[in-house]
Amino acid sequence: MKVEGERLKHPIDLSLPKNEPEKEDYVVDVILKYLHAAKQPIILVDACAIRHRVLQEVHDLVEASGLPTFVAPMGKGAVDESHKNYGGVYAGDGSNAGVRERVESSDLILSIGAIKSDFNTAGFTYRIGQLNTIDFHSTYVRVKYSEYPDINMKGVLRKVIQKMGQLSVTPVPKISNALPRQEDGSSDQRITHAWLWPTVGQWLQEKDIIITETGTANFGIWDTRFPKGVTAVSQVLWGSIGYSVGACQGAALAAKERNGRRTILFVGDGSFQFTVQEISTMLRLGLNPIMYGSHVYSVIILLFLGQPANRI
């Protein structure tokens, strides 16, 4: 049956309710007390900063503070990785080179939107104590061991930026898409992870949409430094293999309708076979994502899409 669609003409109001001003001011003052006392503060951004729409506040905090800024695996893409403050992915024992030491030696971590699940912490190998952490979330803020409920991070972050002033800033680890020394000039013809992911980073363009399948691709992309404006889609919370092909179709459709950004998928054979039927949806909708995967299914895709080999 047809249904009345008048309400579709009115955008959904996604704005958050304002925090109670007195409570918000108090929490901000507590945060600033510890922030100004810290000698080596850093920023760590995770997935809920994306989900709860505080990326503008995150960007302004990174810019205004000058603090070394890191992301968790699910927070990849939340920060402009071309920014001079960006220091890489922190994932406990799975961190980029030099990142674990830098994060875990910090005396104050501004943790924004953390999801401390198994994959996102590389098997719960985070070694950052609550006594050195201020957690910003959508429904509460936790300063060390003191929790302030019913207050969202958006308003708190904005006031922290406004009142922050000068902070103690330490050097940021330097990361790039340069090949490791052992790979640069190597005569070995095998494709290694150490060679692949920095090379992918050299090929990516601004505003690309990158989808990585759970497992190898998701872990590997940590070693890629994104250009400005890249959106990353990953799924390491539930570890659902096969999600990425459907996610690629949805992202490519949105990109086609909005602004034509490139949509790029990294997926393996097993995961691909779970949701291969979405290729037919892509064909029907005239989508043209770039897919990287195992050679077993590449021929199938080539036959279906009629694409030159360099598109796969």
Summarize the structure.
The chain contains eleven helices and eleven strands. The protein has 312 residues and is α/β, with parallel strands linked by helices.
Secondary structure blueprint with pairings:
Blueprint: H1 21-37, E1 41-45, H2 47-51, H3 55-65, E2 69-71, E3 86-89, H4 99-104, E4 108-112, E5 133-136, E6 140-143, E7 146-149, H5 153-163, H6 193-203, E8 209-212, H7 216-220, E9 231-233, H8 243-258, E10 263-266, H9 269-274, H10 278-285, E11 290-292, H11 295-305
Parallel strand pairs: 1-2, 1-4, 2-3, 4-5, 8-9, 8-10, 10-11
Antiparallel strand pairs: 5-6, 6-7
Helix pairs in contact: 1-5, 3-5, 8-10
Structural description of this entry:
The protein has about 300 residues and is an alpha/beta fold. It has 2 domains: about 20-165, Rossmann fold (3-Layer(aba) Sandwich), CATH 3.40.50; about 195-310, Thiamin diphosphate (ThDP)-binding fold, Pyr/PP domains (Rossmann fold, 3-Layer(aba) Sandwich), CATH 3.40.50.970. Helices cover about 35% and strands about 15% of the residues. It has a 7-stranded mixed beta sheet with strand order 3-2-1-4-5-6-7. Strands 9-8-10-11 form a 4-stranded parallel beta sheet, with helices on one face. Helix 1 packs across helix 5 (about 155-165) and helix 3 packs parallel to helix 5 (about 155-165). The relative contact order is 0.12.
Q: Number of DSSP helices?
A: 11
Work out the strand percent: 5-15%
Question: Which class do the helix and strand fractions yield?
Answer: alpha/beta
Order of helices and strands: HEHHEEHEEEEHHEHEHEHHEH
Q: What is the name of the CATH class of the largest domain?
A: Alpha Beta
The CATH architecture of the largest domain can be named as 3-Layer(aba) Sandwich
Largest sheet: 7 strands, mixed
Q: What name does CATH use for the topology of the largest domain?
A: Rossmann fold
Q: Name the average pLDDT.
A: 90
Instruction: Say what oligomer this is.
Output: single chain
Show unreliable segments: 308-312
Q: Give the total of domains.
A: 2
Q: Report the CATH superfamily of the largest domain.
A: TPP-binding domain
So what's the overall shape? globular
Helix content: 25-40%
